[in-house]
Amino acid sequence: MVHAMLTLAGGGDACSDVEVLRAQPALFGSVPSDSTVYRTYRQIDAVTLAGLWDAMAEVRADVWAAVDDGEPVVLDIDASLIEIHSEHKDGTAPTYTRGFGFHPMFCFADATGETLAALLRPGNATANNAADHLTVLDDAISQLPAEIAVGHRPGDDPARVVRPVMVRADSAGASAGFVWGCRARNVGFAVVARKNSDIQGAISKIELDDNRWQSAITQAGEERSDAAVCEVTDLVDLSAWPKRTRLIVRRERLHPGAQTSLFPSLEFRYWGHYTDQPGEPVALDQHMRAHAHVEDHIRRLKDSGLDRFPFVDLDANRARLAIADLVRWFQLVCLDGPLAVAEPKTLRWQLWHAPARIVRRARRHIVRILDDWPTADALLRAYTRIALLT
C-alpha cells in the first residue's frame, strides 16, 4: 500500500504505473507487480480498511506532534462529484448534473490541509444528508490525536474537552440534525445560511441602516471597501437552533457570476452563515470565508488519483480514496517556503521527477542530483529533516 501511495504521488492513476517504481529497486526496495497491487486492493475488506485508517491515525499523531500550534482545531466538510465512465462499478449512480459516478464527502483539517475522513457515496447521494455529515465528522475526530479528540464523542461531558474543535460546512450542513449533532459532540459549528423569508425580513430591516454594517476584511486582514458585514441575530427566530447560535450576514457589490443571494437586490449580493462561536461579526465572517480552502484540498486530491477509481469492488475504491493524501504529511514536516503548499504538479516537476543518478560508494547508495537543479537545496533540506525524524 505504501508503494501504491508513492505511485499516486508521482502522478500514476493505474495499478500498472507501479512498474515505474520497480525500475529502481535501489530506491524503493522490493516493489510488487501491478497484478499484486491489484489483488491487494481487491482483498481489502471493511475491517482491513479500518485498520488502514487506524495506522494513518498513529502516523498523524506523530506528524501533529511536530507541527501542532495548540490552537483550536478547525475542520471543513464538503462533497464533490467524481465522474465514472462505467455503470458496472459498485456504488455508482447518476448525479444531479446528469452525469454518473460517485459523490464522496470529505473532512479536512484546516491548519494542515490533510484529509481526515472520506466517505465514498453514490452519485445520487444528497448533499444535505445530516447523517453523512455526522459520519464524516465522527471519522475525522477519530483521526485526531487522542488528547484533542477527548470530549468530542457523542454525549461526552463538555468538561472533558481539552482542545476546542469546530466544523465548517456550506449550506448543505445548515440542517437541525447536523448542528444539534455537533452540539452533542461539543463541537462548534459554522454553516452557510439558506435563503428563507425570516432572513429576507431581517435584511430588509437593516438594508439601509449604515450604522449596523461594518467593513469586511480580507484573509490578510486588510479592510475591503466593497463588502460589509452585519449581525442580525436579534432580528431572526433562532429558537430551533442550539443556544448561542448567531446569524452573520455579508453583502458585497454584485459582480458577473455571483451566486444566489439571500435577498433580492440590484446592487448587492447577500451571503450569511450561522455559528455558535464568540467574536466580532467581521472576524467571524473572515473565518467562515476561509472554508473555501476545501476547494483547493479537493482539487489536490483529484490531481493525485482521486479523479479515477479503477476497481469494480466498492471496498477497493474506498481503499484508494483513503491513501490519496500521503504527500501532505511530507510537505508539513519536510518542506518549507512555496513547496510546503505547492500543488501536486509543481511537486512532481520540481521534486519527484528531479533528474539524478544512483551511484554506489563506500558500500552506500548515493543519489546525485543533476548539477544546478533549481530545487536541489530543497531536496537536501528535506532529506536532512527525514534523517532527523527517523
Describe the 3D structure.
By secondary structure, the protein is α+β, with helices and mostly antiparallel strands. The chain folds into two domains: 71-303, Transposase Inhibitor Protein From Tn5, Chain A, domain 1, CATH 3.90.350; 337-390, no CATH class. It has 15 helices and 14 strands. It has helices at 2-9, 19-22, 25-28, 34-43, 46-67, 130-143, 146-149, 176-184, 197-206, 281-289, 293-306, 314-322, 326-334, 344-352, 376-389; strands at residues 73-79, 82-83, 93-94, 100-102, 105-109, 115-119, 165-169, 188-192, 214-217, 223-231, 246-253, 268-275, 356-361, 364-369. It is globular and about 80 Å long. It starts with a helix and ends with a helix. The relative contact order is 0.13. The model has no long low-confidence stretch (mean pLDDT 91).
Instruction: Give a count of the beta strands, DSSP E runs of length 2 or more.
Output: 14
Helix coverage percent: 25-40%
Task: Describe the strand arrangement of the main beta sheet, using strand numbers.
Answer: 6-5-1-7-8-12-11-10-9
The CATH level-2 architecture of the largest domain is identified as Alpha-Beta Complex
Give the structural class.
alpha+beta
Please give the domain count. Answer: 2
Count of separate DSSP helical elements: 15
- Strand content is 15-25%
Q: What does the overall shape look like?
A: globular
